[in-house]
């Protein structure tokens, strides 16, 4: 895992994408035509519609974008910051401008309308079938779900187990996109591999820019911080007790009333003595309890 960041760096991914594009335009074309086929309709025709509407749709915008938006909105509300929403916007711009622009620029025909030649397709000539390279679903599986995993890791701390689980989850989603698209026959095999590289490259660029902004800060003094939630301060409780008179210190009372001190009465004083203690003069002695003598019968 220590070599993984180097293998997924922007220069490595960009170089691999350029090399693969050159190979796909020449030496790999016979192999693309050899391995491409509508395998689902040939071997499992009853499952073709299910594979197209369920597993293949996992990497589509209708599924992955709401998941990324839900993760970003929850984190933004929890941490009171615009940062997750900015990552969502950057991922969408990167997909449509970066990967979409690459698809339009290269103009490779899909298996349904051509032989996989570059610069022979195009949006106006064949529509979506004229922009097969790189695969959009495979790129979205890496870019969109990778952005969601990045946000979760960014705000939960360096948890090794969570990082490993999210990495495997994104890898499984990307593998699902490749296998299903290949089995359905929508793309040439090199399109699917190029989608992985293109999605990873855009994601790496977003992560690098985001980390640079985190170190240096936003320009013009901008901030990601959202205004804090206004909490209504509780009203102070009303004092319903009656005010008590303040005690007068003894020294002040003695100075102001020196002759009003109460005098203790010495008449009718009863000594504090218990029945079993010393006899009090003038009072009869308490009777001792009688003892019962037990006589044997």
From TrEMBL:
Listed transmembrane segments: 57-77, 84-106, 126-154, 166-186, 192-209
Note the InterPro entries from the entry.
PAP2/HPO (IPR000326), PAP2/HPO_sf (IPR036938)
Q: Where is the Phosphatidic acid phosphatase type 2/haloperoxidase domain?
A: 83-207
Q: Decide whether keyword Cell inner membrane is in the record.
A: no
The answer to whether the entry has keyword Transmembrane helix is: yes
Instruction: Provide this UniProt record's keywords sorted from A to Z.
Output: Membrane, Transmembrane, Transmembrane helix
UniProt name for this protein: Phosphatase PAP2 family protein
Classification from the root reads:
Bacteria, Bacillati, Actinomycetota, Actinomycetes, Micrococcales
């Amino acid at each position: 895992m220590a070599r993984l960041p180097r293998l997924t760096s922007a220069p490595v991914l960009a170089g691999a994408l350029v090399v693969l594009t050159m190979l796909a335009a020449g030496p790999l074309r016979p192999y693309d035509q050899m391995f491409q086929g509508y395998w689902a309709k040939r071997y499992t025709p009853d499952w073709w519609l299910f594979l197209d509407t369920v597993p293949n749709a996992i990497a589509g915008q209708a599924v992955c974008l709401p998941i990324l938006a839900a993760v970003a909105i929850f984190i933004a509300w929890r941490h009171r910051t615009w940062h997750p929403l900015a990552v969502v916007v950057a991922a969408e711009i990167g997909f449509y401008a970066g990967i979409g622009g690459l698809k339009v620029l290269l103009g490779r025909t899909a298996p349904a309308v051509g032989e996989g030649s570059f610069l022979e397709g195009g949006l106006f000539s064949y529509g979506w079938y004229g922009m097969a390279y790189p695969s959009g679903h495979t790129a979205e599986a890496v870019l969109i779900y990778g952005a969601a995993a990045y946000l979760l890791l960014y705000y939960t701390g360096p948890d090794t187990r969570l990082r490993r689980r999210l990495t495997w989850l994104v890898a499984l989603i990307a593998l699902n996109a490749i296998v299903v698209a290949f089995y359905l026959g929508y793309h040439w095999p090199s399109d699917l591999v190029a989608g992985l590289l293109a999605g990873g490259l855009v994601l790496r660029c977003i992560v690098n820019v985001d980390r640079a902004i985190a170190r240096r800060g936003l320009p013009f003094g901008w901030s990601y911080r959202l205004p804090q939630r206004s909490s209504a301060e509780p009203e102070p409780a009303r004092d319903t007790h009656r005010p008590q008179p303040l005690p007068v210190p003894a020294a002040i009372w003695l100075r102001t009333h020196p002759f009003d001190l109460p005098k203790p009465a010495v008449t009718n004083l009863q000594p504090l003595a218990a029945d079993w203690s010393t006899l009090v003069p003038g009072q009869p002695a308490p009777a001792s309890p009688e003892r019962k003598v037990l006589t044997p019968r």
